Amino acid sequence: MPQMIFVNLPVKDLKKSMAFFGALGFSFNPQFTDDTAACMVISDTILVMLLTHEKFASFSPKPIADTSQSLQVLLTLSRESREAVDAIVAAALVAGGTTTDEPTDYGFMYDHSFLDLDGHAWGVMWMDPSAVQS
């Protein structure tokens, strides 16, 4: 079995968060989705568990961070082109998300970001494959 990553994020309104991420093109695994959690599929090995505050608190010994005051993590997704970066950020804005910056073009890399409905920061980037050395 390949190694997987499960990112757990607390959300205030699970149904609204599912609608937001659904509008960005993500699907949910119904086997791991109920009234307290939704399993959002990023890839075969990367999943995001959207958890109600109560459910998240049952796993964490620390309080949930106040995303209006601090940033605990920046989640970054890669995309296949600059246009795909712009498209997902545009979809996030239409679905109720916000952005705090303009896209940045480094020549070999292009990035932009958005905040979801709960203030979690999502970076989105494209990198020229020829710039990546093996």
In short:
With 134 residues, this protein is α/β, with parallel strands linked by helices. The protein contains 3 helices and 8 strands; from the N terminus they run βαβββαβαβββ. Strand 7 and strand 8 form a beta hairpin.
Architecture blueprint of SSEs:
Elements (H helix, E strand, L loop, with lengths): L4 E7 L2 H10 L3 E3 L7 E5 L4 E7 H7 L14 E5 L3 H13 L9 E2 L3 E7 L5 E7 L7
Parallel strand pairs: 1-4, 5-8
Antiparallel strand pairs: 2-3, 3-4, 6-7, 7-8
Average per-residue pLDDT, rounded, comes to 95
Q: Supply Rg.
A: 15 Å
Question: Going across the major beta sheet, what is the strand order?
Answer: 1-4-3-2
Please identify, by name, the CATH architecture of the largest domain. Answer: Roll
Q: What's the N-to-C terminus distance?
A: 25 Å
CATH topology of the largest domain: 2,3-Dihydroxybiphenyl 1,2-Dioxygenase, domain 1
The helix/strand order is: EHEEEHEHEEE
Fourth CATH level, the homologous superfamily of the largest domain: 2,3-Dihydroxybiphenyl 1,2-Dioxygenase, domain 1
Care to count the β-strands? 8
Approximately what portion of the residues adopt beta-strand conformation? 25-35%
Q: State the low-pLDDT regions, or none.
A: none
Largest sheet: 4 strands, mixed
What structural class do helix, strand and pairing data support? Answer: alpha/beta
- CATH class descriptor of the largest domain: Alpha Beta
Count of domain modules: 2
If helices are DSSP runs of H or I spanning 4 or more residues, what is the number of helices? 3
Shape: globular
- The helicity comes to 10-25%
